[in-house]
Amino acid sequence: MKKSALQQARATYQPKLPVVLTGGAVEAIAGQPTESVANQAEIKELFPNTYGLPELHFEKKQNSTRSANLEAKPINVGVILSGGQAPGGHNVISGLFDGIKKIHRDSRLYGFLMGPGGFVDHKYIELTADYIDQYRNTGGFDIIGSGRTKLETKEQFDKGLEILRELNISALVIIGGDDSNTNAAILAEYYKAINAGVQVIGCPKTIDGDLKNNVIETSFGFDTATKVYSEVIGNIQRDCNSAKKYWHFIKLMGRSASHIALECALQCQPNVCIISEEVEEKNMTLSEVVDSIADVVARRAANGDNYGIVLIPEGLIEFIPAVKALIAELNDLLAAKAADFATVEADKQREWVINQLSEANAATYESLPLGVARQLTLDRDPHGNVQVSLIETEKLLSEMVAKRLDQMKADGKYNGKFAAQHHFFGYEGRCADPSNFDADYCYGLGYTAANLINAGVTGYMASLRNLTLPSVQWIPGGIPVTMMMNMERRHGAMKPVIQKALVKLDAAPFKKFASKREEWAMNTCYTYPGPIQYFGPAEVCDQPSQTLKLENQGL
């Protein structure tokens, strides 16, 4: 395979490990027992064997040497990439491989192909040093592929156990987001309950940034993806400031939270950035969101600036309270009556849905544009939810803003020109070559997972903390997955899941944004982050996200 000059250069980069993981052997130090973030009784009942485990952190063993590790027994480990891609996944696998090889040179790593489905269907390859070396510090999940098969049934668990026993695999590492790690926790509980002798360890992955909490500071891939999006937003801002004739409506990936939009706003300083969590907190209607954008357009036009940038999180429509209530009822309705709905002719589906809904939600559904209303009832994701990324919110908002401006012009409240351009940045950032931060973070997560395996624990997620410090000072450890869980409604029933982290309106990142947005709205304060830099001074190449800095340092 021909490699670009950058690929060849990046292959030589050696990720920087926390110093505690270098040199001799390490030991796991246990903290206090933990409990779930909510619904403690329900979660404890569902996870009797893996609930209440202590947090762990690693320290160097006293008087240990590198050779001491080589006296350990070899271990066979399986690894799964689950869900959507995120920059750095290859480095998690590289770190895991190097970590188990440090434990014993005869340890072996097997990759299950195309996600959890490969685990259930017994499709795998052995990941050797020569093979892994081709993928170090590269983007994508193509080393073994990924998939969205959910691990949730006893039949799947038992089928997977067959191949684990056949390959003498004693530990399984699942690299995924909140749902994938929830499934990892369920699998860990099941294997512990039947004494299968298989450990299950998770790693926190998602560019959306919503898999984080007090103990998981960030998910891998968020840093790289937001830097990729911010580069392109900056390019558009430069074009916008040059042509001075378009309003660019840019939708950004992030279905359940607005972390990506907020981070890109902090990096680029656009004229408008909608934060879904604020829309929900203020109980705003769709019309009020439109009015807020139109107001900025009109005020800039009064200064002669008929151009600007609007950032929109892809999940916005779900956070508008009236639409959120509608979607919740639709999710339950279509879960319960999927067979009935499937028999309704296409031109009668809208009427059928209206007749099934409560009065308030029926009115909201009927008020939506036909295309948006139809999308809310079609193409559910694997969790039974609306695929909001398919709803062209950026076009919906720009069209509604244009109509509002026409009304304002007729009332003598607006005398400008409005022309819109539309963009959606999502897949562009999911497989980028990882930033130095993500390259180090992911490699460290994989290496930490190997040490959790060596410690003999199960039901844990690999963790690195103190991430705003240089990577050599990061603190490796493990967090019980049940500690992050609560009960939520899925497919019409209550299920245990890892609690998603939404943008906190009282936290430093949002406060910083809120303190600046009026200035950014009226003035052209664009910043141009440029492409990710892999080579050069640390202040250019190794910086964490603005969100992470603000969360750790405050305003």
What can you see in these coordinates?
The protein has about 550 residues and is an alpha/beta fold. About 45% of the residues lie in helices and about 15% in strands. It is built from 24 helices and 15 strands. The protein has a nine-stranded mixed β-sheet, sandwiched between helices. It has a four-stranded parallel β-sheet with strand order 9-10-8-11, sandwiched between helices. α8 links the parallel β6 and β7.
Report the helical percentage: 40-55%
- End-to-end separation in angstroms reads 47 Å
Low-confidence parts lasting 5 or more residues at pLDDT below 50?
66-70
How much of the residues is beta strand, in percent?
15-25%
Shape by Cα distribution: globular
Helix/strand/pairing category: alpha/beta
* Rg computed from alpha carbons, rounded to a whole number of angstroms: 25 Å
Count of helical segments?
24
Largest sheet: 9 strands, mixed
Strand order of the largest sheet: 1-2-13-12-7-6-3-4-5
Number of strands: 15
The whole-number mean of residue pLDDT values reads 94
